[in-house]
Write a structure and sequence with these properties.
This protein is of the alpha+beta class. The protein has 11 helices and 4 strands, in the order H-H-H-E-E-E-E-H-H-H-H-H-H-H-H. The radius of gyration is 20 Å and the shape is globular.
Length: about 280
């Protein structure tokens, strides 16, 4: 098992390299530092550099970074890091909780790469539901409006209250082109979009469906129903069918087929945007 010192010395420089590229808006080389199957790569694929800028908080306009924690997990499957952006207005290294960012890394083809990025500390890994709660608190503190500050942007992104453009390259087929913009317009957060795309691609890999002009909306509606369940979003199947303009009677079969093929549980760690990653890896 890796020691904390080894993680800091041998692995953290790869995470720091990603920060430098994003901070300097140098897109070349970013992909090689992201784990292909991780959420960070999916954010980048869907939203480009701006998605990484929001989550890494490089929009703060700060350049001085300090590593605060490094936590190897059992069997070195994942390494968690926590760092802060120091306030340049103070001579000493001063920071607040809102200045903190966490990320996880895994070894891919002999190189450590970033799997996930979370705009909070390791002890308060923020899910989409937590982000919505924090934004509600911010509104209450500010007379019903959100403050116009950079630290609010990552929470709004995860909560589905800030909509970054979805790149065409991030949507592989007609179902994804129906599904992802619809989820975003309905207020699903960034991780829900990432997980919905993963769910659909997992299903297509296991049991390729017949997709045509008549079925693409039906499949997209089925994934939306499952993701609503995973995200604890209260919406009826009738409302989802109406949203996509598909017959409610035809929606049950694709929902059942996806659930059965992937063995989806009520709260599935593969697809739920509200489960805490830190809890799942302890």
């Amino acid at each position: 098992m890796l020691t904390t010192d080894q993680a800091i010395t041998d692995i953290w420089p790869r995470g720091r390299a990603l920060l430098e590229l994003v901070l300097n808006q140098e897109e070349r080389g970013v992909r090689s530092l992201l784990a292909p199957k991780g959420s960070a790569a999916a954010y980048y694929n869907l939203h480009g550099m701006v998605g990484l800028e929001v989550l890494l908080k490089t929009l703060f306009g700060r350049s001085q970074v300090g590593l605060t924690q490094a936590i190897p997990t059992q069997q070195d499957r994942l390494i968690f890091f926590e760092f802060v952006w120091f306030d340049p207005e103070h001579e000493q290294e001063v920071y607040q909780p809102k200045d903190t960012v966490s990320l996880s890394m895994e070894r891919v083809r002999k190189a450590w790469r970033v799997v996930d990025i979370n705009p909070s500390s390791l002890s308060h890994w923020v899910t989409s539901a937590m982000a919505r709660g924090l934004l509600t608190e911010e509104r209450e503190k500010n007379g019903g409006t959100l403050p116009q500050s950079a630290d609010v942007l990552p929470l709004a992104f995860l909560a589905g209250q800030m909509k970054l453009p979805i790149r065409a390259a991030g949507m592989k087929d007609d179902v994804e082109r129906q599904l992802l913009p619809m989820l975003q317009n309905q207020g699903f957060g960034a991780l829900a979009l990432v997980n919905a795309r993963k769910l659909w691609r997992d299903f297509v890999k296991r049991k390729p469906p017949r997709i045509n002009e008549n079925t693409q909306k039906l499949w997209a509606a089925a994934v939306t129903e499952i993701m609503a369940e995973q995200a604890h979003v209260e919406v009826t199947q009738a409302a989802i069918a109406k949203l996509y303009g598909v017959p409610l009677a035809k929606l049950f079969t694709p929902i059942r087929e996806i659930r059965t093929t992937l063995g989806i549980a009520a709260a599935d760690e593969r697809y739920s945007p509200i489960l805490n990653l830190m809890v799942m890896t302890k």
